[in-house]
Amino acid sequence: MTSIDNESRHTDKKSSIAGESISEVITTSTTPTTDEQRTLWQNVKKYRKVTYITFGLTSAILLYGYDNVIIGTISAMPEFQYVYFHTKL
Predict the structure, then answer these.
(1) How far apart are CA 85 and CA 23, in angstroms?
(2) Which residues have CB under 8 Å from 54's CB, separation 6+?
(3) Which of 27, 43, 54, 75 is the most buried (most CB within 10 A)?
């Protein structure tokens, strides 16, 4: 019986040591826990879907305004007016 008691004490001691070392690793890890502590690229990797949606919506808004500028510029060119409106240069 004494050998069983000694073995159980020995395994309990090992498990408590292993538990302490694991908790130390977890608590002393240098990984950021909040969004403010992460860098921009870490947040982009974490929130990929949000990043893709944001770029898609932003490009649609910017290209809509750019499209109007292109159409206005092309229609103001003298060559375009001559071909389509038959006016003299």
Answers:
(1) 79
(2) none
(3) 43
